[in-house]
Amino acid sequence: MNDITLEKVSKSYLVPIRSGKPFKDLVKRQYQTIDAVRNISMEIAHGEAVGLIGPNGAGKSTTLKMLTGILVPDSGSITVFGKDPFAQRKRNCSNIGVLFGQKSQLWWDLPAKDTFVLLKKIYKIPDQIFEKNMEKYTDVLDVSRYIDQPVRQLSLGQRTRLELMASLLHNPGILFLDEPTLGLDVAVKRQIRELLQMLKGETTIILTSHDMKDIDIVCERLVVIDKGSIVIDDAIDRVKKTYGNMEKIEIKLKEADREAVRFLPLEVHAQIEENTIICNYDVNRIHSADILQCVLQHCSVMDVSIMSADIDDIIEKIYQESH
Amino acid sequence: MGFLDIYFFYIRKFFSARAEYRLNFWIGLVANFITYFFTYITYWIITTELADIAGWNFSQLCMLYGTSLLTYALAGTLLWYSVYNLSELIVKGTLDVLLIRPMGVLRQLICNRFGDTFLAQILVTVIFLGVAVSRQEIPLGPGKVIYFILILIGGVCIQAAGMIAVGTLSFWTVKSQEIGDIFYYKIRSLTKYPLSLFPVIIQKLLTFILPWAFINYYPCLLLLDKDSTKFEMICGYLSPVIGVLLLIVSVKFFYFGLRHYTGTGS
């Protein structure tokens, strides 16, 4: 049986429309229904790691909130471990772990360890399992230096690692992560990715992120949501093949040269910003070396940086092709 | 058992966190103490310098106001910061965090913040209830003591129901505290004085529409042997029952509201 099943799930919000006429708004307000999620169906098997992406306001958070039992869908049915997550909220909660990148579950003025003891009581975690997990995650996430310090004295990276630990102490079957790496430095990001890789297989992981690398490393399956609907639901490797494996080069020139774009091969989508050329291209169709060679022949180059395209580039490409 | 264990764990942790802001804590207590101390002093001045209020002397007024304030403060230590002010928790996203834990939402809200500032109200009230009893103008006896305990329980239930109802409104509007300010605070403050002082319409309002008179007025009539009609007697005896019923209704209302919770966007 699947861990998670969504069947034709929809959720809309009522949002007031401001007419711009202040007195009219005071007397009678017009409302507009915003469809946050429309008719989504999806199945997730145990042990899968699924990356959920989409632009801001696409419906990712609403979907996560319905799966965690915070929000009730307007129509359709959701089951998590065979049960309705809202109607059986408490039961659902003891089987899942949730990390909201922007909301803390740690006590601000107290050491994180106090929150962990509280969670032990709330989740009724047996002593043995609690001790074992405390030891394991203290070690893996390397938090022993500051686990006894008041949370407000810690950096964002330190706090996020403790938040992650808090969501794992009760051995959840499913782990939901909403933007877990937002604002973190590379080292912490890597640490979190490594932990998620370690959990993968045993724990089902649902991850939203704006950092494609998080999803690329942790997940095998990609679900793209746009305007409340699922646009793509497929294996990441297949998505990459279909939509191209995008990369980006930024080439900084000694002098601004508006004409530089002309020398570039046709496969490259290029823009110029002051004295920098930004090239987006599909690695299946052209190599970075070819692009560089072209530019070097014609211009004097100061600096070059190659990066994998961020999620926005891929999403943009997906939208261009789906519209 | 599990709940009490968690509740007291929260309280212990609350006070160790509060110790970091010791000065705030003491200032809050003293300010509250002084504010409510002067309300009692007002009664004393009016009744000694002027006259009894609608036939109630100082001791009786202390019982009347004391019942209201004590039940308010007891309910407040449990519910004021997190339930009455639920809209703040919704805006901060705290409610979402509580909703992902396997424990009742209201129970967690009760644990979430201990209403330490209400300790001053409790203290000042206990002092004046002591004064009232020591003046030997209050009828005493085992029956009266048991009835007093019952009306305190009923009163706490009504106060709690009011706070829960106001908090629940924040599932629909961010202005729940303003509504609460009028219907809970302003109108309930009329119960500082004997109900018979007011026009009939106000008496009806406080009995049938916003039943705040069941917190202290009707119970105190019975407690102080001041009930004169059958209606007043029945209201007095029914007060604890009405309290429990209102609490049940307000909790149902809360969970109904929770279904309409739409979160904060992100």
Tell me about this structure.
The complex is a heterodimer of chains A (323) and B (266). In chain A, 34% of the residues lie in helices and 30% in strands. Chain A has helices spanning 22-27, 60-67, 89-95, 112-122, 127-140, 156-168, 186-199, 212-218, 236-243, 288-298, 311-322; strands spanning 4-17, 30-44, 49-53, 75-80, 96-100, 174-178, 204-208, 221-226, 229-235, 246-253, 269-273, 276-282, 301-308. In chain A, the strands form three sheets. Chain A has a six-stranded mixed sheet with strand order 5-6-7-3-8-9, sandwiched between helices. In chain A, β11 (269-273) and β12 form a beta hairpin. Chain B has one domain (24-258). Helix content of chain B is 74%, strand content 0%. Chain B contains twelve helices and no strands. Chain B starts with a helix and ends in an 8-residue tail after the last helix. At the A-B interface, α2, α3, β5 and α4 of A face α1 and α5 of B.
Number of strands of chain A: 13
Helix proportion of chain B? over 70%
Alpha plus pi helix count of chain A = 11
Number of domains of chain B: 1
Q: What's the arrangement of strands in the largest beta sheet of chain A?
A: 5-6-7-3-8-9
Q: What is shown here, in short?
A:
The complex is a heterodimer of chains A (323) and B (266). With 323 residues, chain A is of the alpha/beta class. Chain A has helices at 22-27, 60-67, 89-95, 112-122, 127-140, 156-168, 186-199, 212-218, 236-243, 288-298, 311-322; strands spanning 4-17, 30-44, 49-53, 75-80, 96-100, 174-178, 204-208, 221-226, 229-235, 246-253, 269-273, 276-282, 301-308.
